[in-house]
Amino acid sequence: MKFRLSYCLIFILLFSSFVSGLAITGKKGVYYIDFEPGLVHQQTFRVSSAEDYAAYYNVITDHFSGSDLSPYFTITPDKIENFNQGDTVEIKVRLELPDSLDTPGESETRVVVRPDFSSSGVIRAAPAVGIRYVVFMLYPTKYYEWSFSASDMNVNETRDFSVNVENLGEPTIGSAKAEIEVISLETDEVVKNLDTQTELDISSRASRSLRASFNSVNLKPGNYKAIATLYVDSNVSVDEREFRIGSQDVKILSFTDIFEYNSINKMDILVESAWNTEIKDIYATVSIHDLDTNEKLAEFTSLNTLLKPWQRRIMEAYFDTSKLEKGDYKAVIVVHYDGVTSKKQGTITIDENVKDVKTLEEMPGKFKLKDHLTTVNILITLLVVFVIINIVLFLGYFRKKKPSEKKSSIDPAVLDHVRELKKKYNDDYIKELMTKKGWAEKKIEEILKEVKN
Length: 453
Known about the structure:
Structural class: alpha+beta
Number of strands: 29
Shape: extended
Number of domains: 4
CATH topology of the largest domain: Immunoglobulin-like
Largest sheet: 6 strands, mixed
Number of helices: 7
CATH class of the largest domain: Mainly Beta
CATH architecture of the largest domain: Sandwich
Strand content: over 45%
Radius of gyration: 42 Å
């Protein structure tokens, strides 16, 4: 949690224009501008304060690199006076470029809101925030920048080496091409020579990607170096990159070899991937053998994990020595991944009072009732049981048959006869008639109710 929190704080400091209660907001925090004589660039920003005191600020320019653009800025207003908490003010910034700049390439000047201590008369730790203006002017002569990339790969795989060229000068580049030499760092031999395509007529501010396809078929896994020689018109420059060719192999570098007698021990197995692809669901099986007879005496499995390309990490396994005597044994570790295995064996020792050995009271993953009988867990369990009981009762209530669906205890013939009577007479007459024939009042009510339904 501390690790994540620290990175969050770094992110806020790098990308937020809000510092200690002062904020400056606009469309962007950085403006990249290609130089044009007399170009006018205008923006409006809002400055707000969350400070708990009245402050005074100057809005100034701060030269950072290249030509100083300060003389070409007009800022309105250039002072913020008696700025209180919750206040907001608009700042208009106008940049009008001259006919030319002294320094070609990038020139950066920042518009900064900075405390004015001379006006407030108060010296305290006050914030300053700003907006970056980066103006690029072409070089008058032939000028270019380039980069070279050679990524890691696996055996029997094809990847492109890439040479990226950007023309930063006013003259057009007539042609650009690169030759790439691949050398094995293990043998210092040249294993391949490659050529990129040729790019013609690269205009100012344009960029081109020169590519060469590299196939690692028949090459051994290991470390290599690619040397790129770039030809741009009559200019020649060289750059190089190291890269790796991986094989589907996980190396077992080491493992814990001394354990506490009659205990559950943590076994660390250090492995390293030699593959340029992520390996999922990797695990190890460990078998313990008698040194003399090679009889298998115990076996256990590590926790599953994954390995990122070229990653080195510790796999965890747990070894119960309670059924073994003190002494030396042979351990065979087999790592399983993607249908492939790697194997390593060595001698381990089981002894008493061993220093720096990690032991546990119970095997990880074993259910321990005492750990779950907490007050909170008991209350949660009772609540769940209560909810389940209520759901069952609720469903049972609605599953009951409606009164009309219950089987009637009255003779159907009587009911039919009463229905015929109701077509001609009212209930009072029917009651009187049935009473004379000896029917009980309660039964008559029941019959009439049944007939209505």
